[in-house]
Amino acid sequence: MKMVEIINYFSKLVIPLFILFVVLYGYKSKVKLYESFVSGAKEGFEISLRVLPYIVAILIAVKGFQASGAFDLLKKGFSSLFTFLNIPAEIFGIALLKPLSNSAAVGVFVDILKTSGADSLVAKISAVILGSAETTFYVLAVYLGSVGIKKSKYLVPVCIISDLIGIIIAIFVVKILL
Amino acid sequence: MNLIWFLLLVIGTVFAIINGKLDAFTQALFDGAKQAVEIFLFLIGIMALWLGITKIIEDSGLVNKLSKFFKPLLLKLFKNIPADHPAIAHISLNMIANFFGLGNAATPLGLKAMKDLQELNPDKETVSFEMMLFLVINTASIQLIPFTLIGLFSQYGAQNPTAIVLPTIIATFISAIVAITVLYIFKYFYKDRCSKY
Questions:
Q1: Engineering a disulfide at B16: which of A28, A68, A92, B41 sits with its beta carbon 3.0 to 4.6 angstroms away?
Q2: Between chains, do A64 and B25 touch, taking CB under 8 Å as contact?
Q3: Residue-number span of the structural domain to which B124 is assigned
Q4: How many domains does one find in chain A?
């Protein structure tokens, strides 16, 4: 448990310490800290406003898809394939949700922790998938939207294929190491 | 992106009708829109905070020191970015934020890097290779310590909550390398196809 406490403490420390470091360094370099911060912060509103339509677009599509029951059917369909490959079926839920929505994937992860236990293989594989994958569609929509890119060429297939391979890698790494 | 969005909505609507979940579906659309605004409101503050801090990092020259760590690697990957261009610095900062789990700092810095990359982009409506490379590395999400997950593990009484740290790091690094490779494979065939026509 000691190790966890240290890591937890570090996780609380990292942001304050980073900001302190930046401010001290800025002071040493004789930067007008307050003016500098404010002029940088001004950009925040403009960029946020530019990405809002893209966040709306992606969220309504993802939420609607989940609520329609299409997601459950997809999960059912693939779970038999997963059982066949000797991989716990719950993992598919995580793997499918993570690129769409982080909070939903974490929700499923907590369910797995509750039902299968925190020391189960399923929980470990799920965690590694959660830790090594991104909310791909959200990132793509927001990042591309922020600069007004309309044609994404082959970026989406590359990301989907990489995500799939990433999930397989995550399963293998856990099975080998743990 | 067009196809993905189209599929999500069409499949969603069709299934909502078949499953008789139209109420829930419609409600989910409104919830999505509402949640987007909540994220937006949150984002304004977070963006202002981190872009403010970033400005201090730039003005004080700290940016050169921080980006030194990733610069040699980044210059090799992003061959078309001039060495002294701010894009390199912002990509470095974004990677540092991801790396050390500075959580919500990554998005503001990433968007700033996108802005720099767009300046270098000859066709403003089409994604450049550098942008794709940046996004692919970004979505592979290289993180050293997954704090949230460790927290959840210890909350639910795992014997060794930090056991997943090493596998996560290994998995994420391999995935990143695979993702970059996949991107290059696509680039190769895409060129091939274009030169044919």
A1: A68
A2: yes
A3: 48-139
A4: 1
